[in-house]
Structures are given as C-alpha cells and as structure tokens.
Design a protein that fits this description.
single chain; 208 residues; alpha/beta; Rossmann fold; Arc Repressor Mutant, subunit A; 10 helices; elongated
C-alpha cells in the first residue's frame, strides 16, 4: 500500500484549517499531520513532521512568504502550495521565487484541492490560468523607486499633493514629477487608478 501524502495546513483562521482538512480527510490518499496558525509554528510543524506538502496561506502572522523561505531552506525537498484569498502580484512573485510549487485561490472545490495536492506531491507545479496571465506581464515593486513607493503609499492613504510634499519634505513640483513617473510605470492616467493598481498588484497592502 502506498503511503498517504502527508500535509501540514497553515492558516490563521481555525475555520479555514478545519475546512481544508475536511476536504482531504475523506480520502485515504491524504493525511493531515499538523496545523499551524503563524509562520513560526508553520516552520516548527514542518520540521517536526517533514510533510510531503505544506498548504500555506500568505497572510499569516510572521508572513507566509517568510515561512515558505525558511521551510524550504530547512527542508529542501518540501513542496509548498500557496492557498490564499490574496491575489497581489508582488506576493505571488515572492512566493514562487521563494520556492513555492503552486498557487491556488480559496473557494476551490475539494476535488480541485485534492488534484492540486497530488500534482505538487508528484513534483509538478500548479498555477491557475488567470494567475499565469498576470505573472506574464507583472508590475513589480522594484520598478518603482524608493521615493515613488513612498508617494504611492501616501496616495493610497488619500493625501493630496500638498500633504505629500509636506510629509516627504519636498516641493509640490517634485511630487508632481514623481506622480508622472508612477502613472507611466503603472500604466494609469490618474491618482485613483494608481491607488487601485498599487493595491491590486500587491505593491501596497490594505490592512484590516
């Protein structure tokens, strides 16, 4: 008899962990060996159990990407499958660059989850077509300068050009120049669109 695929589930919401475990528990092919609610426990659980697959939420205390990096560093054969509601392009890139083998959005069916886990356990990579399209033409955080990132964060906070100038201790003309560059890099025409794109691509995160 083939050993079941051992799985560690990482999510800071108990109901989500319970739901994911339930999707897998009715099939003898899978065995949930541990659950974790934050990056630290994700790493310690993974090291303790050496699972075949780690189901990892990105938005956990301590950071899902950070946990992924450490898990793969300590367990080079570990296969991390990101499963999250968060779709920021920057975070997807960081997770994949960290060594994650796939990325799934919550709301998938039990059948889709089981298929993805099997594929990742077998060494394949799993990526929804809509995510692949967005990764093909990304807007990356590194494309914006440090000052432009500061301006974008203040735009998302709703600050005016004058307020941004005061906050950054620069002239309003400098703010306008930075905005022009930001608009060009993000492919937008105004401040509102810039804020939307920055959030959508994970350049800026809305808390809460």
């Amino acid at each position: 008899m083939v050993d079941p695929i051992s799985i560690v589930i990482v999510d800071d919401h108990p109901a989500v962990r319970t739901g994911l475990a339930a999707m897998l528990s009715n099939d003898d092919q899978f065995e949930v060996v541990a659950e974790a609610a934050d990056a630290e426990s994700a790493v310690s659980s993974s090291v303790a159990h050496s699972p075949s697959v780690v189901l990892m939420d990105l938005r956990i205390p301590g950071g899902g990407v950070e946990a992924t990096i450490e898990i793969i560093d300590r367990l080079p054969k570990a296969r991390v499958l990101i499963i999250t509601t968060f779709e920021g392009d920057e975070d997807i890139h960081r997770a994949i660059q960290a060594g994650a083998k796939g990325y799934l959005l919550k709301g998938l069916t039990g059948s889709e989850l089981r298929t993805a886990v099997i594929r990742v356990a077998n060494g394949e990579e799993v990526m929804p077509p809509e995510i692949e399209k967005r990764l093909a033409n990304p807007v990356r955080r590194k494309d914006l300068s440090r000052r432009e990132l500061e301006v974008v964060h203040l735009i998302v906070d709703g600050q005016s050009n004058k307020e941004i100038a005061t906050h950054l201790k620069i002239g309003e003309e400098s703010v306008k120049s930075h905005l022009k560059s930001v608009f060009q890099k993000l492919g937008v025409a105004d401040r509102t669109q810039a804020a939307v794109e920055a959030i959508r691509h994970g350049i800026v995160h809305l808390e809460g």
